[in-house]
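G., before I forget:
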Amino acid sequence: MPSLKDIKNQINSVGSTKKITSAMKMVAASKLRRSQEKAEAARPYSSRLEEMLVSLASSVASGDGIIKLLTGTGNDQNYVIIPVSADRGLCGGFNSSINRETFKLVKSLEKDGKKVELMPVGKKSRDFFNRVMKDQILESFVDLNVSQSGYDSALQVSNKLQELFFEGKFDKCILVFNKFKSVISQEVTQQQLIPLDVSNSPKEENPDDNVVKAIYDYEPDEETILKDLLPKNVSIQIFKVLLESDAGEHGARMAAMDNATRNAGEMIDSLTLKYNRTRQAFITKELIEIISGAESV
Amino acid sequence: MATISFDLVSPESLIFNDDVGMIIIPGKDGDLGVLPGHSKIMSSLRPGRVMVYGEDKNLLKSFFVSGGFTEINPEKCIVLAESVDEMSELEKSLVEKEIQELESKDSEDSKDKLYIAKKKIEALNSSFY
């Protein structure tokens, strides 16, 4: 049976853990608000860009060079998968669900005879894939810190990705990331980045709108604009995903820390109960000793 | 006088959003002066100044954009810029320092940056704004 002092120590240590977790929860909550604002602010740009792209995409059927970002290389043999995880842990299943999903995707693609390579973003997925499939990692990005360095961090990933694409290293690129559904729930999502999946984007519902769109003048011309637009779109998509994942990370950490704080509270309660019982038992024992000692006199 | 609604958007935020009298945009093939009722145009941009004028043609704001796209229709003008600096906040000495740093490097990336920085100086030296 643990002594009174042992239990007291245990209560103290759980208490300080609780303090840490509740502080982390608070920090995550304030960071979450900020990164949500950032994600919100990035939305007008990406939705505008997508609109422009959709109206342009129909006018160019095929082509070489940059247009390949839209039309693809005509092959689907070589894949690059970008799992987007956090740099830090202690955020529940946030990182492990990304790693698990990516791992499954890689295995299923390999079963179909495709060649798969990885470009992990974030320390947690880099470390994981360094252990399980080290030779398939093309490049990894850690400490991107999207909430501070902003768009530049997305450019880093995007430039490298496009460089590899135009060298003909791969045909298709898929992003695996946590979609920010709400503060407490994130959904692991796969998004095809290259070639661009235009059919996925929401179509104009109003037929009049399409007629209006069709009479735009283009300067210089459609193809030149598209050539500028496509690489930018890749960067913007990555930027959007990074922001979303960042917001998701803080949300997940907040939920995880909230749970941990609550668990610590429960643990303290039960330990306090145990402490009091033990102390009472001790007192009772001493009393019995005193009484029986007095009786025997 | 009529006004046209103008949005200036960067990847990180919505920078300007108001009804204005006129906007001058650095289009790839030359500057575009956009007045209310402009015909529909989509254009890409070169690095340069976006100048925003009020209804009585007084200069409201002036921005430096490093490139991007614009979409214009009779009621609305949207500029999607890659990076945006307000002209009044640009420091000539800082940009010159950046140019010096970039000139010492020799990579594809720094060349682009150098070009943009040089355009910045050009815009800063320009007499009218």
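The first strand of chain B starts at residue 4 and ends at 9. The mean pLDDT of chain B is 85.

More on Monday.
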